[in-house]
Amino acid sequence: MDIDRFLIKKEFKVALSEIKVPESTLELVKKHVLVPFNSTSTPKDSSEDVKHVLLFGAPGTGKTYLANAIAGELQSVTCYYTSFYEMKSEKFPYRIEIPLPDESDRYKLLEKDLKESNISVTQEQLLELVKSTEGFTGSDIVVVVKEALMEPLRMIEKATHYVKDKDTNKWAPCSPDTPGSVEMTWTELSPEDLMEPKATMDDVRNGLARCSPTVNKDELELFRQFKGLHNINY
């Protein structure tokens, strides 16, 4: 079978190195997906050499990003979707679980997201967040950081007093008893005169308090049973 006729060229901007999944999972993907398709010794018209790989796992663990990264490595993606629905489970000789991020993965995810969001935390605080996000998916962690970024905006919205910052000459929300405070609301200030406070570790903690893992124990048990049913032990 000539697989080239089932493929379209498309540019994918997600690199495999950017996907935060366990290193052992990436090695399985490279072994069973990238190597067979990139190998010059694999005949393009040999259906026996083409491997169908099933990526499975809880929502938010990075399956879609990983699939996009794989497509980027191969510079192609299938558009022959009808053949997928005709496939039976035995057509997937390799089934790779995309698990919940472990401590190392959560550390990397949090470190990257917090840095990109300009939220400064100490090493001790970062480790605290790693422990507090056990059971969270990668998507859950993104939501936590987004919630933290919303905290300063909520502060601006609720503030009844502002004080002018001497360095920037902009107004920042403050408590009524702050020296130099002026009673006003954010609607009385132009955007260029308003100093948006940066999110802090306390904001991250507040964001975390509002969030819960989206994957429950029952769902994880289903994936465990699926692995047992298909003898998946890697």
From TrEMBL:
Keywords: ATP-binding, Nucleotide-binding. One of its GO terms (biological process) is endosomal transport. InterPro entries: AAA_lid_3 (IPR041569), ATPase_AAA_core (IPR003959), MT-severing_AAA_ATPase (IPR050304), P-loop_NTPase (IPR027417), Spast_Vps4_C (IPR015415). Residues 53-88 form the ATPase AAA-type core domain. Gene3D superfamilies: 1.10.8.60, P-loop containing nucleotide triphosphate hydrolases. GO terms for molecular function: ATP binding; ATP hydrolysis activity. Residues 126-154 form the AAA ATPase AAA+ lid domain. It comes from the Eukaryota. Residues 171-226 form the Spastin/Vps4 C-terminal domain. It holds the Pfam family AAA. SUPFAM superfamilies: P-loop containing nucleoside triphosphate hydrolases. Transmembrane segments: none annotated. PANTHER family: AAA DOMAIN-CONTAINING, VACUOLAR PROTEIN SORTING-ASSOCIATED PROTEIN 4A. Belongs to the AAA ATPase family. This is Vacuolar protein sorting-associated protein 4-like isoform X2. It comes from Crassostrea virginica.
